[in-house]
Amino acid sequence: MPDAAMPLHLSEETARFLQSGLSIILASAADGEPSVGRALACRVSEGGAVVELFVVAEKAQPLLDHLRGGAPIAVAFTRPSTHRTLQIKAATAELRPLTAQDRAFIARSQQAFVADVELLMGPHQGALLRAALGSPEDADLRIVVRPNASFEQTPGPRAGQPLTSAQAAPRADPSSAIDLPARLEHDFAARQSNATLRPERRSRPVSLAAIRACLEGIIPAAVASCAPDGTPNVTYVSQVEYVDADHVALTFQFFNKTRENVLANPRVSVLLIHPDTGQSFRLALHYLRTESEGPLFEAMKARLAGIASHSGMARVFRLLGADVYRVRRIDPVPGMVLVVEDPPCCRLEALRRMGARLQNAGDLSELTQTVLDDLAQHLDMQHSMVLLLDPARSALYAVASRGYADSGVGAEIALGQGVIGVAGQQRTPIRIGYYTQDSAYSQAIRAELGDAERHALETEIPLPGLPQPHSQLAVPICQSGRLLGVLFVESTRNLRFDAADEDTLVVLAQQLGQAIVLLLAQADDPAEPGASAAPTPPRDAAPLMVRHFAANDSVFLDEHYLIKGVAGAIFMRLVRDYVRQGRTAFSNKELRLDSALGLPDLTDNLEARLILLDRRLAEQQRGVLLEKTGRGRFRLVVQRPLRLVETPGSD
């Protein structure tokens, strides 16, 4: 516990920083129960020996009760645009009424704070901050403290180091690992320009699901903890993750004081702010465990990469674990809230319409394109793709896309790589709300396969994607516990997809998985097609060279890469039969029974590979196509003479 007998005089530079219009969070504790609150402004007096904090009393309970009982206090000061943070501590605090001059000082401080916040969140943030913090007119109490300890708390290697009275708060260093973040363009910024405020003082039960918007990482959460001796600590946490109706997870990024406190005393208090209404909620949590692998950890790791990159902290933030907490209590903080007129939500109706369309799809090709068209029409998700699993290669390959200049059909991404690969590997939704340049979670391209020295030809299909995706959501497609693929959407807008969008796509992916399994069970037709006479290609048509590399079954048409792997082996089976026997009619069943193709023992692989091959041939337009002739039947359409070139090789 801080020693009250050792007063501290803050330096002039530190005093100027604390009074410059900052985000101020407070913590106290009594009987091992931490409390958290916010202050509107700070004033330093008596040569740096006294710090005055201005608060709205009704928003600061039970912290004020703890202080009235003689509990210690911790205060953190942060400039949002640069993350520069200091913390002071004191053994006790005195509560005093405001003076006539205080509200004018608070108003000037809040003006500076609003201007700084608008660097991050866009214009019209005054109403949001008034709802979250209170206005100068609402302030009714001063908390007067005499600091006996001060610490550097800016994220980075100096965090936790004490400041002495002779030390000034460090100036911003443009060469440091902290970069100025880009402005956050979110719909609420524009909508709040004409929003209205109303009082919200009713004490009513609140469910965790009802406040999931507070967990999006738009406004960092304040976390208060306390040591076994009762010394409080307060800091910001990058991410609070919804686990289920009774649990949340907090990011464990640094071995800091909060971590030390939690391991000794599992109780913490978290203060959240709703990004649309400005209403605050205080959560009482109990630490249970830390997960350093698995779906929850990977989902938080992916989201943290986006949050960190957006906020300029990509080189500082690193997830060490996901700390899981039980939610003991949720208390709404009284005060004003913003009333924002939202358009009526029609996700349930959209799901009903999309589900009906999926049931009416005639085959897998129609099914995958239908779901992407419906996402654009009903949910305004214009950039999307469906990828299916190749279990033999532990990879996902694109079978349909929408909204991109190049379809990318046939592109592969390894399980565990990027947003898509992690969602598939962990079988959990991954949602990112900010643009990230982190190579592990931005537009990920699978590393090249094959022997480049043996044939220096490009055998990679680029995965389609936006050049700067600001929001991404990947949802696994599963059925009966088996991974079938991944449904993926992205947008150029920050925070385009919220928790409700995630829930909607999870349900849609379940329906899609059921439809895939049903269609594949009906894919084979028992009737065998007979040999058919091949139409004679035009005499003046130039021959088409079909070059096959046996090492990985990659196929090139006139030196242009077509496909590889299972789809390449299927294509070569078809063209060999055409060249040798003149056959053009084939069935799914005969291909499935052909052991030479090396098809995995999964019913979906053949149908999906045929779709992939069909779409790649249609895109290439080089005189060879597949034409569906019935359920489980298709025809090879050849419009140019074929010349087969076999290139042997070894793995």
TrEMBL record:
Species this chain originates from: Thiomonas bhubaneswarensis
Gene3D superfamilies, per database record: 3.30.450.40, Electron Transport, Fmn-binding Protein, Chain A (2.30.110.10)
Region (Disordered): 150-174
Domain GAF: 363-526
PANTHER family: 5'-PHOSPHATE OXIDASE PUTATIVE DOMAIN-CONTAINING PROTEIN-RELATED
Protein name: GAF domain/Pyridoxamine 5'-phosphate oxidase
InterPro entries reported for this sequence: GAF, GAF-like_dom_sf, Pyridox_Oxase_N, Split_barrel_FMN-bd
Alphabetized Pfam families for the sequence: GAF, PNPOx_N
